[in-house]
Structures are given as structure tokens and as C-alpha cells.
Amino acid sequence: MTKSNKPQVKIVNCETGEEIVRDATAEEIAQIELNSANAAAKQTEADAKATAKAALLAQLGITEEQAKLLLS
Amino acid sequence: MTKARNLADNALTTVSPTELGYVDGVTSSIQTQLDDKTAKSTLTTKGDVYAATAASTPARLAVGANGTVLTAASGQATGLEWATPAAGGMTLISTTTLTGASITLSSIPSTYNHLQLVILNYKPANDNSYFCFSINGDMAANRHLSSRTDADMSGTSATAFDNTNFITGKNDNSVAQGIQIINLFDYTNVVTWKFGFSYGVFNNATTTTSANVFARPLIYNQTNAISSLLLFPESGNFTSGTALLYGVK
């Protein structure tokens, strides 16, 4: 039996203790892909913010610690 | 013939001086004094206790079943009864290894007051991925809120429900020594939004010897009772970890 390449999901029945591991359904795969896309988008946004912050600090000629001190 | 005369006639023949000496110092009726005492024979069995049914009226109360406790009960003859102590504390409902793309904890019993989910050593396959979960597998937009800013928690800001799921803390993909506690309060009520609190510490992905410390109120803006939880990493699979679900009374 070949191992599936689909994502695996586990269902745990808390009343019986039964655990079932199965391939994700098409709907679940779509949700997993959406989650990953959202995570990637957030990371891109965070990276862009970090880049912009670094550029601003360079423009001002101060360090991040100095900027924090100014705002504290 | 008087009783005193009888005693005088018989004492010298049937009662020794030593025996007569036993009543030395008696100043009132011996029988009355004996009647005021409680008979040891009232207690017949191991564990029996004395209990009064009224003033100066002791009675036997048999020991209760193992594990029961003695409690006041004015409706009982003795005013006491053995009762099963009220259940309290935490009960482990489920323990499972974090693996695959998601874990669904289904058919959560509705017999507890609160739930506590403990996540041990969460390790995602993708570096720096948040631990996420949703109530009842609900991934509809704008129903979950994982507060983390002062403004969110000021009690005065209009904070929007902005996610399809809760996000808590994020962890490195090679070192996993963290723990997270998620408390979900009054999870069976069908009147209020559901509220929880997540706090914990995970390994920082850049410097694994440093800690990602987090504490977030979690709000789900639906009134359904919680019967299942869908756990998943922000992206990719779980590599390892353990989820323990407790019922709290």
C-alpha cells in the first residue's frame, strides 16, 4: 500500500478514546492551503514592515533602541 | 425489715470489707450515675460513631461506604449522614500526539464546567508557525479574536473579530520545550459568546534559548456550546507535541 501524499488529519473521539487518522478531504485541503496562504501573506507583510522600519531608522540615523527611547 | 437492716444482716457473710470499700466516697445514687453513662455496646461495628438524636440521647451511626464523608443533614435522625463528596478538580478527558495537518478533538463531554487544553512541546514542521485552533471546527470569517494589544484589552476599544481561528504562540521547528495552557470557560452554555485565555511559553525560532512568552484572551462570537476543537499549525504539519484536554469542575 502506497502512502498517500495528501495531508493527514486525526480525529479523536473524546468519549470513546478512538483515534482515526485519514487523508484530508478536498474541503480540508482547501482550508489548509488557505491557512498557509494567509500565513505567507502575514509573513510578507511583517517582512515589508521590518524593511520599512529599517529604512526609516537609517534615514533618521538612529538605532532601534534609540527610537524606543524616544517613544518611551 | 429495712434495706439497711438487710445489708447489715448479710454484709458480714456475703460481702467482703474490700468490696464494701468500693462504695467509699459515693455521694449519690450509683444507679443514677450509671444510667447517665453511654453504653459501649451502642457501638457494634468498626467505624461506628456516636451521634445524638436529641439532647442527651446518643445513638449509633454506622460507618458509611468507602470514600464517603460525614456531612450535616438536618433531615436525618442524628442530623448527620455519609455522603459522596462533590466531585471537583480536573479530569483528563483526552491525551493525543500532535501529528499531521490537524487534530480534531470531537465529542467533548458536556458534563464539566470548564475545559483546559494543555499543549506540551508543540513543534511545527514550518519554522515559526503559530499554534492555532478553532471552536467546533468553525473556520468562518470574523468569528474568532485572539487579543494581544493593550487597546484590545482596554475594555473601551471596539475590537473586531478578525480571524477564522485563534492564534496563540509560535515555536521553532527544531527545538520544542514549551508549554501552553488554554482555559475555556463555561463551554456548554448557549447564551454567551465563548471566552478563553491562553498563556504559555514557546521556543523562539531565531534564538531557541530565548522564550516567546504569550498571554491572550480568546473570544468566539457565537453562542453554541463547544463540542469539538480543531487544532492545527499556522501552516504545514505538526512535527510533534502532545495535547491534553481536561474537564474542570
Describe the structure.
Chain A is of the alpha+beta class and 72 residues long. Helices cover 60% and strands 15% of the residues of chain A. Chain A is built from 2 helices and 2 strands, in the order E-E-H-H. Chain A has a two-stranded antiparallel sheet. In chain A, a hairpin with a 5-residue loop joins strand 1 and strand 2 (19-23). The longest helix of chain A is centred in the middle third of the chain and has 35 residues, at 26-60. Chain A is elongated. Chain A starts with 7 loop residues before the first strand and ends with a helix. Chain B contains 3 helices and 15 strands. Chain B has helices at 3-14, 17-21, 30-35, and strands at residues 49-54, 57-61, 69-72, 80-83, 90-97, 102-106, 114-124, 129-135, 144-146, 166-171, 179-185, 194-203, 211-220, 229-233, 238-248. A 7-stranded antiparallel beta sheet of chain B has the order 5-15-7-11-12-13-9, with no helix packed on it. A 4-stranded antiparallel beta sheet of chain B has the order 6-14-8-10, with no helix packed on it. The longest helix of chain B is centred in the first third of the chain and has 12 residues, at 3-14. In chain B, strand 3 (69-72) and strand 4 (80-83) form a beta hairpin. The termini of chain B are far apart. With 249 residues, chain B is mostly beta strands. In chain B, 9% of the residues lie in helices and 41% in strands. The A-B interface holds A 7-17, 19, 21, 24, 28, 31-32, 35-36, 39-40 and B 93-94, 96, 99-109, 126, 129-130, 132, 139, 165, 232, 234-237, 245. Strand 1 (8-13) of chain A pairs parallel with strand 6 of chain B.
* Biggest sheet: strand arrangement of chain B: 5-15-7-11-12-13-9
Tell me the structural class of chain A: alpha+beta
**Percentage of residues in DSSP E strands of chain B:** 35-45%
Rg of chain A (CA only): 23 Å
The portion of residues forming beta strands of chain A comes to 15-25%
* Global morphology of chain A: elongated
Please tally the helical runs of chain A, counting DSSP H or I stretches of 4 or more residues.
2
Q: Give the termini distance of chain A in whole angstroms.
A: 62 Å
Biggest interface pair, counts: A-B, 21 and 26 residues
- Could you describe the largest sheet of chain A, including whether it forms a barrel? 2 strands, antiparallel
Q: Could you give a short account of the major beta sheet of chain B? A: 7 strands, antiparallel
